[in-house]
Design a protein that fits this description.
The chain is α/β, with parallel strands linked by helices and about 250 residues long. It has one domain: Acetylglutamate kinase-like (Carbamate kinase, 3-Layer(aba) Sandwich). About 35% of the residues lie in helices and about 15% in strands. It contains nine helices and nine strands. It has a nine-stranded mixed sheet, with helices on both faces. α1 (about 30-45) crosses α3 and α5 (about 145-155) packs parallel to α7 (about 200-210). The longest helix is centred in the first third of the chain and has 24 residues, at about 70-95. The chain starts with 8 loop residues before the first strand and ends with a helix. Residues about 245-250 have low confidence and may be disordered.
Length: about 250
């Protein structure tokens, strides 16, 4: 690994399931400690780190919505689950002597700061790791959309989407042994192929602003640092300069 980061400021998107480890529910202390160690290590390279964490390990709003619960109510409950994960991640990071701030899109002064864009940027500039909780604060939007939105608001150089597989495949590699992994894709290819990387709203936001998305396996130790230092790890979603030129995207 070359020791020079290619990005100054990144947004790391963690699913709630990433915190479960081998458990079927909740937060695995060993897993969250390992993630905190890796994030802190990257931070020590001089990279400004923001994190958006999901809540699927605690509550799945879409699943309950499908079973008859009001979608808005289910989504708000899911947002609260992300706050629980954010506080747990903050605790794990602070055990690594990292300075952190949790910023919530739903106001809850006792446990988190309200999300204010300029304050978030200032925290990053001061060397604090910022964890964004409660999604966008609105129902009907996923934490993928929240990750894309927050990344653009803080002017991140890239989104790092940590998953359980090595990258983006032609099919689900756990179900199809012939599935092959892409090294690079354009945003348009992701949408046209209906690849379940992030939801379409998130991909469209990134496409409009040319924000690269790195999809990689979180379970391989050191992968976060490898991606940030420019190694070929996982799949990169980025603009096709021949097709998605600035002139075209601005049309």
């Amino acid at each position: 690994m070359s020791g020079q980061p290619i990005y100054k400021r990144i947004l790391l998107k963690l699913s709630g399931e990433a915190l479960m480890g081998d458990q079927g529910y909740g937060i695995d202390p060993a897993t969250i400690t390992r993630i905190a160690q890796e994030v802190n290590g990257v931070h020590h390279l001089g990279v400004e780190v923001a994190i958006v964490v999901g809540g699927g390990n605690i509550f799945r709003g879409l699943a309950l919505s499908a079973k008859g619960m009001d979608r808005a109510s289910a989504d708000y409950m899911g947002m609260l689950a992300t706050v629980l994960n954010a506080i747990a991640l903050q605790d794990a990071l602070e055990n690594q002597k990292a300075f952190t701030r949790v910023m919530s899109a739903i106001e809850m002064q006792e446990v988190a700061e309200p999300f204010i864009r300029r304050r978030a940027i200032r925290h990053l500039e001061k060397g604090r790791i910022v964890i964004f909780a409660a999604g966008t604060g609105n129902p009907f939007f996923t934490t993928d959309s929240a990750a894309a939105l927050r990344a653009l608001e803080i002017r991140a150089d890239a989104i790092l989407k940590a998953t359980k597989v090595d990258g983006i495949y032609t099919a689900d590699p756990t179900k199809d042994s012939t599935a092959t992994m892409f090294e690079t894709l354009t945003y348009l290819e992701v949408i046209q192929r209906d690849l379940q990387v992030m939801d379409t709203s998130a991909i469209s936001l990134c496409r409009e602003q040319g924000l690269p998305i790195h999809v990689f396996n979180l379970n391989a130790p050191g992968n976060i640092a490898r991606v940030i230092c420019g190694e070929r790890v996982g799949t990169v979603v980025k603009p096709d300069t021949r097709v998605e030129s600035k002139g075209l995207s601005g049309a």
